[in-house]
Amino acid sequence: MKNADSEKDAMNTRAPSPAAGALAELERELRSCVRGEVHFDRMSCGLHATDASHYQMMPACVATPRDEADCIAAVSAAGRCRVPITPRGGGTSLSGQTFGPGLVLDVSKYMDRILELNVEQRWARVQPGMIRDLLNVQLAPHRLHFAPDPATGNRATVGGMIGRYVHDLGSGLMVVGGEKTFGDAVFHDTPLERLLPVTAAAAATETERSVLAMVLIIDRSGSMEQDRRLDLAKEAAQQSVRVLDAHDKAGVIAFSDDAEWIAPLATVADKADLLQRIATLTAYG
Ligand SMILES: Cc1cc2nc3c(=O)[nH]c(=O)nc-3n(C[C@H](O)[C@H](O)[C@H](O)COP(=O)(O)OP(=O)(O)OC[C@H]3O[C@@H](n4cnc5c(N)ncnc54)[C@H](O)[C@@H]3O)c2cc1C
Predict the structure, then answer these.
(1) Can you tell me which atom of ligand 1 is nearest the CA of 152?
(2) For 100-130, what is each residue's pLDDT tens digit?
(3) What CA–CA distance (Å, rounded) separates 122 from 147?
(4) Of 238, 239, 219, the residue nearest 229 (C-alpha)
(5) Relative to the CA of 111, which ligand 1 atom is closest?
(6) Residues 70-92: pLDDT tens digits?
(7) How many angstroms does the Cα of residue 264 sit away from the middle of ligand 1?
(8) Is 212 in the same domain as 156?
(9) Range of 66's domain?
(10) Are residues 14 and 93 in the same domain?
């Protein structure tokens, strides 16, 4: 018969679990800065160890943030303790995307409200755990409707739908660099630090500051013509380029049947040229 630890190890086959010391530190931090619930017990973690897929992995802990400030606090704490994070909405994903070995951030419990609704301009600002069908119930009296219609609409959250949609776009962002790129403090005072709710400790010397290098990979196959997908992917790529500093590096690869460099990885000296190259991408294949 397997003991509890070997059973847990067997479930955690995809990625190494965080060290016990890091988890103890994370538990202290989460309990002091997150107002929502923080769970490290086996039952709560077990409830978040699977989704609508056949996969299973025991997370080290689960937090249910009450609001945006709680999310920022939890992400910052996990960053400081070097514990990976997996966000979770309704948990209806089919490929095991909603759990990992570290912290599962479950936004479905408390962050499920409309924050702002502008009927005239036909938009709503919602929390990520807002369930798609409940959003439409509240929009119906205004003759508005949020169109994406997954079969799981009575469980699927807006955050989860977007997470899933971004995945389906086939586009991605990679940060590449040398052996020191992911070391302590290297993102200090860089565009990445300004983008993320994570603060890197100050680098000891100016020479330790890293150059940020990004390769943007854009799917330009024919299916990207549907629903303005390619336009959205291009806009996301351009936004990423806009936040880079002149000494950072960026490159763009577009793929359909073949992949080609639209702009080779190089220093972002001429941002306008890079933005223009992304803008002129068209779908084919
Ligand atoms: C029976 C069945 C039918 C389905 N039918 C369809 C369908 O018709 N069309 C379709 O597109 N899909 C379908 N799906 C897949 C899935 O239900 C949908 O993709 C749904 O939109 C996922 O929403 P969720 O809230 O459950 O997200 P989750 O499964 O909880 O998460 C989805 C992804 O988004 C990430 N995520 C969640 N919340 C956040 C957040 N706040 N910030 C950043 N990332 C976040 C997660 O880490 C995960 O990678 C189906 C699934 C099942 C089981």
Answers:
(1) 17
(2) 999 999 999 999 999 999 999 999 999 999 9
(3) 12
(4) 219
(5) 41
(6) 998 999 899 889 898 999 999 99
(7) 34
(8) no
(9) 4-106
(10) yes
